[in-house]
Automatic annotation (TrEMBL), chain B:
<comment type="subunit">
    <text>Component of nuclear RNase P and RNase MRP complexes. RNase P consists of a catalytic RNA moiety and 10 different protein chains; POP1, POP4, POP5, POP7, RPP14, RPP21, RPP25, RPP30, RPP38 and RPP40. Within the RNase P complex, POP1, POP7 and RPP25 form the 'finger' subcomplex, POP5, RPP14, RPP40 and homodimeric RPP30 form the 'palm' subcomplex, and RPP21, POP4 and RPP38 form the 'wrist' subcomplex. All subunits of the RNase P complex interact with the catalytic RNA. Several subunits of RNase P are also part of the RNase MRP complex.</text>
</comment>
<dbReference type="InterPro" id="IPR014612">
    <property type="entry name" value="Pop7/Rpp20"/>
</dbReference>
<keyword id="KW-0963">Cytoplasm</keyword>
<dbReference type="GO" id="GO:0004526">
    <property type="term" value="F:ribonuclease P activity"/>
</dbReference>
<dbReference type="InterPro" id="IPR036882">
    <property type="entry name" value="Alba-like_dom_sf"/>
</dbReference>
<dbReference type="Pfam" id="PF12328">
    <property type="entry name" value="Rpp20"/>
</dbReference>
<protein>
    <recommendedName>
        <fullName>Ribonuclease P protein subunit p20</fullName>
    </recommendedName>
</protein>
<comment type="similarity">
    <text>Belongs to the histone-like Alba family.</text>
</comment>
<dbReference type="GO" id="GO:0001682">
    <property type="term" value="P:tRNA 5'-leader removal"/>
</dbReference>
<dbReference type="GO" id="GO:0003676">
    <property type="term" value="F:nucleic acid binding"/>
</dbReference>
<dbReference type="GO" id="GO:0000172">
    <property type="term" value="C:ribonuclease MRP complex"/>
</dbReference>
<keyword id="KW-0539">Nucleus</keyword>
<keyword id="KW-0819">tRNA processing</keyword>
<dbReference type="GO" id="GO:0006364">
    <property type="term" value="P:rRNA processing"/>
</dbReference>
<comment type="function">
    <text>Component of ribonuclease P, a ribonucleoprotein complex that generates mature tRNA molecules by cleaving their 5'-ends. Also a component of the MRP ribonuclease complex, which cleaves pre-rRNA sequences.</text>
</comment>
<keyword id="KW-0698">rRNA processing</keyword>
<dbReference type="GO" id="GO:0005655">
    <property type="term" value="C:nucleolar ribonuclease P complex"/>
</dbReference>
Amino acid sequence: MSGVNRKEKKYAKLMRNQPSNFTFSSADPGAGRSGMGPSEPQTDNPNYSCFTSHQGVNGDHGQQQQVGSSHQPSSYGDRQRGSHRGGFRGQRGSSRGSYRSYSQEIPKIITATNFAQARAAEINAMLKAVTHKSGSQFLQSLPPAMRRRAMSHNLKRLPRRLREIAKKEVEKIAQLKKEQSKSKSRKARRRHGNLLMEFNRRQRKNIWLETHIWHAKRFHMVKKWGYCLGTKPTTKSYRACYRAMSKQCLLQDLSYYCCLELNGTEDNLLKTLTCLSSREAGTTFASVACLSGKCQGSLVLYKADQYPEKPLGPVTFLWRPKTLSENRQLWIWAHPALKMDLLTELQLVCQCLDVPVPEPAPSECRTVTRTPVKQAKVIGSKRKLHDKAGEQVVPEKKIIGNGTRDPLETVIWTSLTTGIVIEDLTMEILRYRLIGPLSHCVMFEAIQAAGILKNSEGREETGLHSWWSEYCESPENVTLHNRQEGVLLLLPGIASPAEISAGTVLGLTVGDPRLNMPKNRTTAMPDPTQPKDLEKIRELCLNGVGAECAQSQIWDRNIRNIVTETKITEQELNGMRSKLLVPGTRLDLGPQESKIPILLVQQPGKMAGQEHTGWGSGWDILIPKGWGMAFWIPLIYRGARAGGLQEGAKHTQYKGLPHFPDDFPDCPAGMQHSEETEKELIAKYKKYPPAKRPNYIHHGTMTPFRCPWQRLVEDWETQNQDGGIKPTMSDQEQGLRSELQASNREAVGVHEKGAFEEISSEEKPPNLEEKMEEESESMTTLEQNTGCKNIHNPSNRDCSSKSGHVSILRNRKLLKQVSAWCRPTSSRGQQTRQYRGSAPVQMTADTVKSVICSYPRFLVWVRLSLLKKGSPVANATICIPSKEDLQRLASEPNCSGPQEPKHRDPFKQECKALRKSQKKRTLPQDSETAAGDLERKSASSFGKVLIRGLWPTQPLNVMSHCSRLTIGYVSQGDFSLTVGCGEAWGFVSLLGLLRMVLSQPAERRGLALVRSPASLQYRFAKINIEV
Amino acid sequence: MAENQPLAPASEGALDMDQVEYTLRKRLPRKLPKRKNDIYVNMKTDFKAQLARCQKMLDSGCFSEICIHGLGLAINRAINIALQLQGGSFGALQIAANTSTVELVDDLELDEGEPLTRTRNNSAIHIKVFHTLPK
């Protein structure tokens, strides 16, 4: 194997100086000739004679060339050796043979000039190859028997006649190396200015967060979404991070989230933004609590008027509390993978496409010196303040904010019609997330409200922070600041962030957090001895923070810029510290101290479901750019543990929420993500030898690296229409189901409410009659709903079935209903508890049917908790247990679940044949068979790519491929540290889910089977839909 | 008791609670600062395990007394644990119980309009288990 590699390398070396029209080909000996010129005679003998005649002209080189073409993979050294030994003639003979068998199409006429030119180019190339001597040439000129160890090291081991030449060679090489080596020593490269330049260069392609260097020393970094991000700590800390999340405090840098600012009148903004979301899915931009600016809202955005199809992705948004001006500001925070989609959609909706306004006055903080010519000079020479021409070298500035953006690129778009201004605030505002019950204490210790400046203290004294003295001039602002400070002081009295209302926003202006840093890393703990104002704390918990307390100067662009510019550098700060009278005491800057406006946003923990409510709650800190490290280190010094992307994903997972972009298969970003991961996983799979990787065909897994949502939904829809493809092995068909299918068949395509009622009255399954009469009222209301919906947007439904798009159910009302249906009825009457307003809709065949008809191709986000052993992995299948499975589970509760019988691999023979032919092709052989093989290979590669153990074609029938019917797939699964058993999160087809639930007995409702892609074992799991 | 609370949103909420559909989200009960000898009893952990934990704490000799707290449904269990501890000690342990009321906060999420908060009260018990003769 290594020999082959070496040969290839040599070949590549040889080809380095070849002209473009001269190519060797290793596969076909004749093919080398095709490059020689456009014109060569066709028949055998004239061909040869003609060739030799030309050879005569070319002389010696012509001969060499022939050798080169006949004896392909041999390198230059081999050839030389060959000539030493005098084995030249024999090779020539063999080459002649191959020319005879050569029968390619060749033009009949030769143009002499062209031909001569081509030959001349070849000759030149060969001359170049001969004269250019690579490093170890003198060694290779010796026959192997004469070579000695370490000859290149000690020249005296060479025969004397070669020493002179070798000496020259060695000197030449040494000189070459010297020239090539880096012009700078490590010390020089590590000098501050040069280092900064290097850092700035590296930041041009991918944005660095402000904590990048800190992270790069401690985390595994990846380049994702145009950023350099830390995935997980290099230390072994998976569980430690989990403990930090649930008991202490975990810190995460979320500055890579993009902020888009919308500015306009409230009416205009609301009018334009309503079409992006729907009331059905929960919060909207117009939600009362969010609109006042009191709390942060989160929602899933859709393309304009496309709900429930074509979602864009999840965002969080924040309104600025009302100010004196009429315009309102709205921040939309989105994941970078979603930003471009969102931005284009917003521009479209706000009609901002036409008038891109170039960025106003370039703010000084963004002045990144970009003088490539000068930089090149600086790199070459030593560090000098003045270069040779005597002009000042512009010192490189640290990039703050987005270093990849072209300074001329527009970031502001204005609409003439609506007056809305959209601004891209990417990397302008940093966002740190504190997770865990101690995040309170950490924050409280790290942050202290800024001191208010008295009027007596003149503006000249405050110097740089004039905005703060101006702000303090008005008494209203001072009272507001005092109130905000009061709220902050109350916080340590609250033990966990989950105790105050979700999404609370608190604006603050704080002093420089670097000034009161502890000397060592400490752990912030609540202090029980501290006196607390219990009444006020209670008030805070109940009513939250007032809307006016959410006001902060961070919303003001100018003030943000001033704050960023006037930051005292670490160096200056340390200089001042060193001048302190008593070393080690707190540095008191007085009015000179920086004042930073920030926002604190409470992050609700686990909201959905009954278990572990409030888990993983915490605070987000929003800081103006430039202050990243100044806040990061103090937080770390208060005992926060840093986490990366992995911890962030786990956090959302344990909260039971879908993680973006992994768990949004209906969003463009999600689709792209799944494609990318599939490619990666296949590449990884192919790296293993076939015996050391699972054969997924045997395991009955058609798509081990992605989830074929669309096929699944389509399969269920067609099955619903045709009324029954049975799974290959089980006979779980039962009376109720066939009844249902029969009725469904007729119900499909009927949208009118009247028709529904007709069917439901005529085709009542006899066994359900009494039940239906009891629930007739609630049922009809539901039918009315669905009927109306169908009438209202029939076009939507049609397009969904045509385009074959998959949608995820986000209608809260329906989700609640389905969630109630999936619960076993025996458990403590939970169903009734949640719906006090309207009577719960009982699950009957007809209600289910109506849901199915109105939501035919929808997926539902579910959480699966395994009953016994096992922890499923991503892309595991979720299946319907057969009747026998459930019986078996009832009779022996310790059984681990059924097994999938091993599948046959129908592609095994094909794979083997392909492999064989590939092997054959590598061996030297006649050109005819080679051509045949090539044909066969191309035929097979056109149809499908065969990889042993993977299903080669598009999956056809994913639903009924295995012995149990598949209803969904797991998008992420793991052993859950919160629950202490295997848990999985994924989507199931709504149709499949309802079918499953209908067929199950009431006390065992919501039991499903989960099977990992590389396993035959099904495991029992409980389906939870948490709303 | 809930009616006596001087909370405007809560009383308003009670009015239209029946008409509007809402989602009830219970917030966590207020956490109190915890000493090392405080034991909060819950209904999820196995009874035996909780009993063993208390027993171990008493036997370790580090604490002359432990405090067992139970809220709501867990009151029964807290009492049970305390009595079992006392019964198993052959008179070496004594118990002293205190009851209290804990205020709990619920969030009512409406589909439209401002979310409401509501307070309700729940009983709690705090049982001190201590050695009669300090070792």
